[in-house]
Amino acid sequence: MIEKIAQIRLQAFREFEEAKSLQEAEAARNKYLGRKGAIADLFRHMPGIPPEERPEAGEALNRLRAELEVVAETAREKFAQKKEAPQIDTTLPGRMPHLGALHPLTIVTRQIIDIFRQMGFAVASGPEIETVYYNFDALNTPPWHPSRDESATLYLPNGFVLRTETSPVQIRVMEAMQPPVRIIAPGRVYRRDRPDATHSPMFHQVEGLYVDEGVTMADLKGTLVAFYRTLFGEQTAVRFRPHFFPFTEPSAEVDITCLFCAGKGCRICKEAGWIEMGGSGMVDPNVLDGVGYDSEKYTGWACGLGIERVAMFLYGIDNIRSLYDGDVRFLRQFI
Ligand SMILES: [Zn+2]
């Protein structure tokens, strides 16, 4: 009997080991562990063996059954796992991970910063919630100026304003350091504007400021011509139109040749051949005196432009709201 058990043990182990599928493993389990299987058969023959051999044979048979149950379960798990494993088709093209992209406003802001940086300008920043002093008074804005009106500016209940320009940064920088000052200040600004295709109550500006001994309008023109030609191409012409801003004197609006018709006249430029890009001028002596600079010794220029406007021209975007919607189908184009 003991010999018989040992023989069946070897045979069963081999069969489980050689099983190549779940079906074959199940067949082996039935053959040895099933109700009519080999183990059950041996148990049935137990009464026929000599009584003195029974305890040993019974023990060996029980041990074999326990062993085979483990082997059968292991085989079942092995094949079950194989069946669930994902089917990999190595001929399919790979899946690219979804990468984020820079927002067009970030791309343009960085381009602008790079150009000014190459000309020796440092980047400065300031708070978006400003005092009336920094936003208007220090910039020489008279009390009657329409930009102070509640219909144009967003006032906060505690007497602060959401800055209407990045210009307050000029004041903060000049208060903190002596000339020469050569900075640009990119950032968000707020106006009480009804949103439409070209207006938004929040948009981005970049401001430039250069103050030193002997700075003239020629420096302003030279810097802006170099800037716009680097940004929009060598063929770009720049035109200065007299204007009024409280914090500069003289002041000028800056136009560039229309990017769409190269100055011939089209729908975008309203047949003018020029498009307005921003404001500029020589810093008003009152502003310099206000921050404690000697306006007899120092002169300077300031300029500003809207970043959305640049992005819309560069990328041919016709609705400013596309820049804020967060529509991935739109944003994916800038990857
Ligand atoms: Zn045009």
Q: Descriptors for this entry?
A:
335 residues; two-stranded antiparallel ribbon; 11 helices; 20% strand; BirA Bifunctional Protein, domain 2; single chain; 2 domains; seven-stranded mixed beta sheet; binds zinc ion; alpha+beta
Report on the structure:
- This protein has 335 residues and is α+β, with helices and mostly antiparallel strands.
- The protein has two domains: 2-84; 104-334, BirA Bifunctional Protein, domain 2.
- 39% of the residues lie in helices and 20% in strands.
- It has a seven-stranded mixed beta sheet with strand order 1-4-5-9-8-7-6, sandwiched between helices.
- The longest helix has 31 residues, at 54-84.
Number of helices: 11
* Overall pLDDT level: 90
As for the CATH topology of the largest domain, it is BirA Bifunctional Protein, domain 2
Give the overall silhouette.
rod-shaped
Approximately how much helix is present in the residues?
25-40%
Compute the number of strand runs: 9
Please give the domain count. 2
